[in-house]
Amino acid sequence: MSGRARGAAITASAALLCALAAQAAQAQDVRKLSTFSTTGKIVVVSVCGKSGFVAGLIRGGSIAVWQLPSGKVASSWKSAEGVSSLACSPDGKWIALGRSDGTVEIADIAGKPARTLAAGHGDVTDVAYAPDGLLLAVSLHEKPVQLWNPVNGSRVAELETDFSGSTGMAFSPDSSAFATSDADTTVRVYDRAGKLKAKYTDLLLEPFAIDFLPNGKEILVGGADDTLTILDASNAHLSRQLPKRPSPIFGAIALPGGHSLLSLEIDAATLAKFTVVLWNLGTGAQRELAIDGAKIVGYGQLSNGQPVLFTADSDASLSMWSVPD
Amino acid sequence: MGMARRELLAKCMALGVVASTTNLLPSALAAAWQQNEKSTRTPTPAAELGPFYKRLAPGNGELRAPGDAGMPLVVAGQVYSSRGELIPSAVVEIWQTNHEGLYDNDGYHYRAKLITPADGKYEFSSVMPGHYPARVCQHIHYLVSAPGYHPLVTQLYFATDPVFEGDPDKNFTRDPLVTSRELVRPVTLVGDPKAIHAAVKFELVLEAL
User: Taking the complete model, does pTM exceed 0.95, yes or no?
Assistant: First the structure.
């Protein structure tokens, strides 16, 4: 290779490296991927595993299912009154709708009701499918969580708290374990039959959010103590705590790569402004992400594994943001 | 009403509609019934725990520090069972915002864990809580527990809260978290005009397991 050719090759290589570096830098930044129009304000969305759908509950009781990432409406229907929570099954075939009368309706993705679960009295504040789709967690206002079989409609277990209910719940990636962050300041870990395996009782303030790390061996907890706490999932012993933040953490998400976390924080003085913080799990380094919107309403992954957050905007629209992993 | 009920019981017994297996006279039986009815208490309505409960609060009922801003407040009451029995050794945990509507999550200001003596009484001095963001009413949180009883999670509200515009009967639902009118208690201003404070009586009734 001549000197000129070598020089050209070096220049080309340098340009390629620069381009790759720029691409990598872009990949590390949060980006708004798309904004979907909705018929009203979004209450909550649930990403249907990697099936390519996201389901949303719209204020007033309408349900919509959008294709990802296009935002094309796959189906929509008006539900009966009193829907307060929603979860989509990982295979994208079923929607569980929690109601204010203590029931959970399971409908197909087109809105055709399949069965109703009578969980109790009061508002069903949250519902969540296990990754294998064979368990459904149901959280009732101020009451312990219940585990249900969504296929045959039978109750598997009613879990426990010392008082009040649960503030967060998460299944392990392999669906073998389930964990709750409870208002009695305890984190409890159960097997899939609902048998209590371990609990962590050293928190002073309420935990608000919980997630399993992708390896299934550790649990991430965030709460009113402004801190992300990481527990050993096998015995609920403390592994470590990340540096304290200035605000309560109401959302804690372990990103799929296993190296990063997201904390969703809210200003305690105003309860209005939220902040999304990206954490490096290894170093504890943290960075606030530039995500705007009125409210964070959901999290999930696209079919290609890209983690995304959803925000409800002040107008009738839903925005999807890619977050670095 | 009481006499009418007693007379009704006596007439029913005379007619054989009600039979007594005791040797008590109808009048004594009716009096015992009345006494029992009087002592029965309705369990205190539950309300949301709220986001900032904190364990291990100190056992000091003096929540107000010298110089704290806000209307001084004294809250007192007794802890009963729904059968009207006083409950000793009940644990009454309370937490509230300061005058400006802020919780102390780093420390324990305006938080306490009180244990009732034999007469079931509790009392604490504080300030009237401020209006917390995104919450309509001034409130004080309670978690009350005792062996053999369901834990009670509830909140105390104040009839003087401007939100009620002087008519809590009509306006208590302005805060969707106020689950019962019973939780909105009257406020009395007491003490020397130079050192006036608000006083509230709030009885707590637990249900047996």
Answer: no
